[in-house]
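Need tokens for this chain, all 258 residues.
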Amino acid sequence: MNKVLTIWSKEFKGYFHGPSFYIVSGLYTAFLSFSFFMLLKHFAKQSMFYMAQTQGHGEGVNLHGVVFVGLISNINLILLILVPFLTVRLLTEEKKLRTFDLLLTSPITSMQIVLGKYLAALSVVWSFCLISLIYPASLLFFTKIQWGVLISSYMGLLMIAAIYVAIGLFASSLTSSVILSGFIALILSLGLWFIAWTSVVVEDATLQSIFEHLSVSQHFGEFMKGSIAITGFVFSLSVVAIYVFLTERVVESMRWRA
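Here are the structure tokens for all 258 residues:
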């Protein structure tokens, strides 16, 4: 475990050494701030229209459904593009710089290498997710927030982020080309969302049920509704475990060739 933490510490600190991380962080924050402002503006317009139509009767427009769902959906879209950019450096750059050969010949297992790098990238990506909680918290003194549904939504976001990181790490193990590994990670991540379309096309009820279970959008949607189901965690952890295992197999094959 100490060796995993050593690799985690080295990789985690490595993210903060170059200017690219701070540029990405700035763009991420700027986009979310603008997105949050526009969502609030849209919510205000909908609320005024609803009040005019109902003359003040009723519960009003749902803040979570309009603002927070939109915000978390935008974060997911950003992570879909951002995570491949953050994870390609984990193995691809080391192979290009020939430092990976030294790591392979060191007294450390392939799984320890993979886990250390995975946890480092996951820590960075999860920090991006959790920082965005500032936006919902900023409304705490102005309106009532459905914290249960919001926390459930963020749990779904963290699960999806974990999947993206595992896919990105696997893609970075396949090639020494940064562009190619980033492209592979993006395609594999998008594939999890496209499975939902397959469940609509297939007519067989059994196959439909299987594709729905394999669809990340199905599980993410349940989290967004406030439903914390065990199947969502099992699905997410299973996908992460599969890609971490595949990455370990690729790294182990490199060790034999080193």
